[in-house]
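Job type: complex structure
Entries:
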Amino acid sequence: MATAVTTPKLTTTFIYKRLPISLPISSHFLSLPKTLASPSLSYVQSHHHHRQHHQRRHFSVRAESENGAETARQYDFDLFTIGAGSGGVRASRFASNFGASVAVCELPFSTISSETTGGVGGTCVLRGCVPKKLMVYASKFSHEFDESNGFGWKYEVEPQHDWSTLIANKNAELQRLTGIYKNILKNANVTLLEGRGKIVDPHTVDVDGKLYTARHILISVGGRPFIPDIPGSEHAIDSDAALDLPSKPKKIAIIGGGYIALEFAGIFNGLTSDVHVFIRQKKVLRGFDEEIRDFVAEQMSVRGIEFHTEESPEAILKSADGSLSLKTNKGTVEGFSHIMFATGRRPNTKNLGLEKVGVKMSKNGAIQVDEYSCTSVPSIWAVGDVTDRINLTPVALMEGGALAKTLFQDEPTKPDYSRAVPSAVFCQPPIGQVGLSEEQAIQEYGDIDVFTANFRPLKATLSGLPDRVFMKLIVCAKTNKVLGLHMCGEDAPEIVQVSTSIKML
Ligand SMILES: Cc1cc2nc3c(=O)[nH]c(=O)nc-3n(C[C@H](O)[C@H](O)[C@H](O)COP(=O)(O)OP(=O)(O)OC[C@H]3O[C@@H](n4cnc5c(N)ncnc54)[C@H](O)[C@@H]3O)c2cc1C
């Protein structure tokens, strides 16, 4: 661990360590574990798709023969997309721009998703990236108020937060965004149908009882939060509900140590709830760089979040006064107004007719696809979270765009995962990272150089708060190429995003 630089400094002291460990250079450069599927910074990132000349597959919508032995079948649409989230909207819009006739069906709007509710825009826009980030902005003010005193700001009374204003303004913004997404589809000449899509046969989709045929069907139904079945789980909330609570939690238990759990812990802590995080393992953020994992937990604890490590929930009990207790393998913590599960998401593949038509799924219900996003049924394709590859918005967008090219531009295109996907965790302080962790870099490259800095930012000198910043750069000792960049501290996501415009290996 790098030595702490406690005095105010304008320049950063980099601690340098060389790790002369020679291990076999093994797998692929971007062997990001699933836990790295964290909020990405790469909205503005463009992905290059290389033509696969050597293994060219032909997919065309104009393949109808006029007088051949096979009579060309007429379809209502060239492409029928089920689910208008990030991946579905991107694929539909691009396909239509390439000349295909396209329809997309989506469930009616609601802030909470279910088998019967959703909304154009999908998880990222309505129940993920966007509302979450708005809540993060709301929550950051309390820290800023604390910081401001040292800079001379005085408040006659403590600033008060009005929960209902925040939720009303956030929901108005979601309405505006879902409207924008509907317009995007309309302007691209995509037919939007409201209703639940279900596959009837390899070329037919049922939308609430009406049948539509299509040459190709795209499944982009995403996933939904999953609450484990423990006694009392009906009293728990998930991330959908946590983004739309009628009142601020007084004391909340958040179960899970992944990025969503930490982001919500920061949100509720900033909005002055009493926050307890329960994690099954010793550390938060499995798969992230070890030093980052330690640093972020330490900084979040300093801000008042209580971590309960190696504690698994066993039951939720509701007492007569309505408060909740969480029973774990280590004991019972009482007095919660809310208990939130952030322990994972499941693909929305139930009751979709997939088993009947022979679309293969893995154990967790994710649709299995080949490198072109084709399922085991040649006319049925799948992109985004439903395939459980890298569950991030920019990745769903990339997969959707690649599929439209494959199907309708006569250009078979594989989604390109070969470049490091930069990602951020919008906890407080936030994390920005790209490339390999130190542990992965050692595994893959053996000899690496690691530069770290752990310092007190200038702002903290006057604010008097115990905020710190941690940075880490991992370099291949042999080639001097940057393998990984990790940062936790104010503006880390933005800083890492800018840095990644410098081409990595
Ligand atoms: C709390 C949270 C925060 C997140 N933050 C980030 C972030 O900061 N950055 C990031 O990159 N990613 C983030 N993600 C992940 C991101 O939201 C997803 O990776 C992305 O939305 C996946 O897009 P998709 O198209 O696969 O699915 P979705 O966006 O989920 O879209 C699927 C759509 O299909 C609809 N649907 C489902 N079943 C049917 C049916 N039978 N018929 C018709 N429609 C149907 C659903 O209603 C939904 O609108 C976050 C997720 C969550 C939950």
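Summary: Residues 1-70 have pLDDT under 50 and may be disordered. Residues 75 and 214 are 5 Å apart (CA to CA).
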